[in-house]
Design a protein that fits this description.
Length: 281
């Protein structure tokens, strides 16, 4: 180390002398090359430099050991139905069963046939009671009963309610035609129906017995059609169905026959809801 310092010092003096011509007039020639100095001591560890660029990808290593089995996950959705498998091998035959009894099929057929006959007779009897004894007419949804008891409009409406129905409301052409045939068969000229002027409405405001307005259908006669558009008199605000199939105004205090209607019951069996409570006529 000391020799290296001396060598550097001599070199500096030599450069100074060779650069200053005023002080040193004699020129010095460089000496022979000296021997190589000893290797110095290892210096301190330097600071950590920046990361260099990534190297090339190495060769894939050997596969590691197989790990332990993990926890069972949740059940996934059901897959599509698979194809039908091949038929399996037939199993062994079972033990022989006990002999059966002889079936008297002809006897059972006879009983079933007699039941069908009895059901038909009962159906005809029910139809006879409805159409002849009670005098009922019917549609797919309702029964209609002509009550041959002269009553005023309010009394007729109450009588239908006591029977479990209301005054008949012909809301369609088919229903109006059926009720007209009913009146003709009874030999009558007119009957009360469930249509009345609404006291709280304006001129021409009429409602059915269930308080629903007249919509889509009305069978007023020509004279009564004009009368229905104006405000009807209090004593003629009720409506009757004539044998001609048209509607006409009538005094509510007049005593007339009337038609009640009853909704058909959705339950099977007699005495259900919607059957007329009384059919006296």
């Amino acid at each position: 180390m000391f020799r290296l310092l001396m060598f550097c010092l001599f070199g500096a003096i030599f450069r100074c002398i060779s650069a200053s011509t005023e002080i040193c007039t004699n020129s010095l020639l460089p000496g022979a090359k000296g021997d190589q100095g000893e290797i110095g001591e290892e210096g301190d560890l330097g600071k950590l430099g920046k990361y260099g660029p990534s190297g090339l990808k190495g060769v894939q290593g050997d596969s590691g050991l197989k790990g332990e089995v993990g926890h069972i996950g949740k059940m996934g959705p059901s897959g599509d139905k698979g194809d039908k498998g091949d038929k399996g091998v037939d199993g062994p035959s079972g033990l022989k069963g006990k002999p059966g009894t002889t079936c008297d099929c002809g006897r059972y057929r006879k009983v079933v046939g007699q039941l069908d006959i009895n059901v038909g007779k009962l159906r005809d009897a029910v139809k006879f009671v409805k159409n002849v004894v009670l005098g009922l007419k019917e549609t797919e949804e309702r029964y209609y009963l002509l009550v041959k008891e002269p009553k005023r409009f309010r009394e007729a409406s109450m009588n239908c309610k006591l029977r479990g129905g209301t005054l008949a409301m012909p809301k369609t052409t088919n229903t109006n035609r059926l009720m007209t045939e009913y009146v003709l068969q009874a030999g009558l000229t007119g009957v009360y129906i469930g249509v009345q002027a609404q006291s709280t409405g304006g001129p021409g405001s009429y409602v059915y017995a269930d308080s629903s307005p007249l919509q889509g259908f009305a069978a007023w006669s020509k004279d009564d059609d004009l009368h229905s558009r104006s405000s009807p008199a209090t004593n003629s605000s009720c409506v009757e169905l004539l044998s001609t199939g048209t509607w006409a105004h009538v005094e509510c205090e007049a005593s007339m026959f009337f038609v009640c209607e009853f909704p058909k019951s959705r339950r099977r069996g007699g005495g259900g809801r919607g059957t007329p409570a009384s059919a006296s006529s």
